[in-house]
Design a protein that fits this description.
Layout: H1 23-28, H2 30-39, H3 41-60, H4 71-86, E1 94-95, E2 99-101, H5 112-122, H6 142-152, E3 156-160, H7 163-175, E4 179-183, H8 196-202, E5 206-210, H9 218-224, E6 229-235, H10 251-260, E7 265-270, H11 288-293, E8 298-302, E9 313-317, H12 319-327, H13 330-334, H14 338-350, H15 357-360, H16 362-367, H17 371-389, E10 393-405, E11 414-423, H18 429-441, E12 447-448, E13 450-452, E14 455-459, H19 467-470, H20 473-480
Helix pairs in contact: 2-3, 3-4, 5-14, 6-14, 7-12, 17-20
Bound molecules: pyridoxal-5'-phosphate.
Residues 162-164, 167, 190, 194, 235-236, 238, 268, 270-271, 302, 313, 407 line the site of pyridoxal-5'-phosphate.
Amino acid sequence: MSACPGERGGSGARAEPKDLPAVDELLRASGVASMVAEHGHRLLAAEVRSLLDAMRAQARAGTLGVQALRPDALEAALRSRVDARLAPRMRPVLNLTGTVLHTNLGRALLADAAVRHVVETMARPNNLEYDLETGGRGDRDAIVEELLCTLTGAQAATVVNNNAAAVLLTIAALARGGEVIVSHGELVEIGGAFRMPDVMVAAGAELVEVGTTNRTHPHDYERAIGERTALLMKVHTSNYMVQGFTSSVDEATLARIAHAKGLPLASDLGAGSLVDLAEYGLPREPTPQDKLAAGCDVVTFSGDKLMGGPQAGLVVGTRDAVARIRRFPMKRALRMSKLPLAALEATLMLYLRPERLALDLPTLRLLTRPVRAMRELAIALQPALAAVVAPRFTVEVVEMLGQIGSGSLPVERLPSAGLAIAPAQRKGAGRALDELAGALRALPLPVIGRIADDRLLLDLRCLEDTAPFAAQLGHLQRALA
Ligand SMILES: *Cc1c(COP(=O)(O)O)cnc(C)c1O
């Protein structure tokens, strides 16, 4: 916990432990009584005790000044402790990293419509699993299944907690106790301990690798199919790219091979955009509808990557395969909560109006933002920021390259613009930059940039409203003073 006013030792007389007030005495003090009235006795008593413990330790060490015991100083120290205790650990930040789908910063931003739907349905009873026509029990999947089928052309759909769960459940339901054939070049680690070979073990299936890191051919799959084969699987290598002398087998060919032997084919897309990004001037990313049309029985993808919704794992496919997945007992343990389900429904609905999507869906809006808009914003913000960080730093408007993030299109970069803050002196430049980055993170609304080439870069792609940023400048000036 940071030092509170009144806890610092001053230069004057030192306080002794015996000078400290008793817990009850402090709780009855006039300024403290109003805090007790607001927050209740329990919280205040706990904070008073911990404040007095901290002060007693300081007094024993001879570092507590008598002025810290003045009623106003005690009250202020207590107030800042109570405020800190009640401040949420999960806080909004400004993502100026240039990565739109930043996994550590919460991935996709929810659309206004999704936030509204969550707020409207969560504080009240709702028909989560209640059929309003019959008055009987309903299925929570029904809330989004028809929408998902309309949007992807699937016969059936189900949803779980995240895409890792969707992949685990798909493999377990379709291949537990059997073999799953996957290309060696697609045995990806998505980060955070999600490795395909480990997922196979967790799902109770046996992995059969075919091909090599760079090349896999149709006959590799054909030869690997045996008595125990239960599933053929394709994994989108979303977070890296094998370039050069490569070949892989597309879904249409794999589907023919699988179906000739009566086996299902699953495809894990990862990011899975529901629209063709090329239509928006962005690099193309495979869509679930393409994969289903190519003959996949199941396609899995994330809700909070390119789809721009809440954390979710979407499973679309044939009636038969989805029914087996839905029936599998593990589904109950991985099911989605009503909260993201409401956000998912509202997000999917935005896709029914594709002409408005680049306005209504924040992920697509940010990805399609013209460089000109960001450059104009940078020019407008530069003077005020330069004044605040001077004389230790200088600020320039620069072009830079951002990225989509969350493993999507790893080699594609998004041309962007923003502000580059550079230390005025070469000597100690590295430390000055670290200090600046720390000061930005410590702001009431933390600002997260990135350090590159001895400069701190603030990419403005994700800054749609300048007011919250401008409101931080006074705090930054004081922090750097
Ligand atoms: C991101 C990703 C996952 C995991 O999805 P989460 O929604 O983060 O659980 C699985 N497979 C691929 C290919 C991915 O890109």
